[in-house]
Structure formats: structure tokens, C-alpha cells
Amino acid sequence: MKIVSGCFAGIACRYDRKHNRVEEIQRLVREGKAVPVCPEQMGGLSTPRNPAEIVGGDGDDVLDGNARVIDKQGSDVTESFVAGAREALAMAQAVDADEAILKERSPSCGSCMIYDGTFSGTKKAGVGVTTALLRRHGIRVVSEEVGVENP
Length: 151
Prior knowledge:
Layout: E1 2-5, H1 23-30, E2 34-37, H2 39-42, E3 52-55, H3 59-63, E4 68-71, H4 78-94, E5 99-102, E6 113-115, E7 123-125, H5 129-136, E8 140-143
Helix pairs in contact: 4-5
């Protein structure tokens, strides 16, 4: 069983109320082989919501208390991102998922690349909060875009 970013299943859960539907992933959900999650919604954030980026590191740094997730208006949304990561982990464990296919560049789901925290569109190597937590619990996280696992 897998968990997948809800936006891949056609759920309009992105910050801008859009989705990133991927037919193959939507098929996995329809066939009961994958469960969609949106950590940001699961952490209590609304849709739509202000875009957010990790400032001061990546998802591992957020979990360790050394970085924060800040939205474009300057609000600290770290606790919502951590709570959503915990909910996504609980869902993954409930369905005995061994893999997650998540949205690259997201401050929750990025598995190789995230935005650098300046809201300038600049990307950097790093992982999102949910990816970091899943990985710490032995769940393999893969990006749909590059098809690779973050080491």
C-alpha cells in the first residue's frame, strides 16, 4: 500500500485550490492501492491558503526545532505543518504503507527539492516536513517528478 499526495488524485487541495492530477496515481487510488493525503489540510490549514516555505533549513530542521515554516504573509505555520505530518504518518501506519509518492518542491511533501524560504521561486536541495517524518519512520518517499528516492 502507498500513500500519495492528494493533489495527485485530483483533489483540489493545493494552497491555490488547484490539483496536480496524475492519471496513474489516480488509478492507484481508485483500485485501492493508494490512499491520498494532504498534510497541510490534515494539519488544519484551509484551502486556499497562503503559500508557505521553510525558512532556516528543511523538513528535518523543522522537526528538530531549528527551522520554521512561514507563509508569504509572514505568519508562522510550523505547528500546522508538523501536525499534518504526524497525521499523514498515522494514516500511512494505519494502512501499512511502505511507500509515499509525494509532490516535489512542497514544504510538506518535497522529497528532493524545496523552495529556499525567500518566496523568490528559488529552489534548493532538501525535504519537506512530512517527507522528513515519514523517512524517520522507515517509509520510503519518492517524488513523482524525478522518480528517485531521497537518500
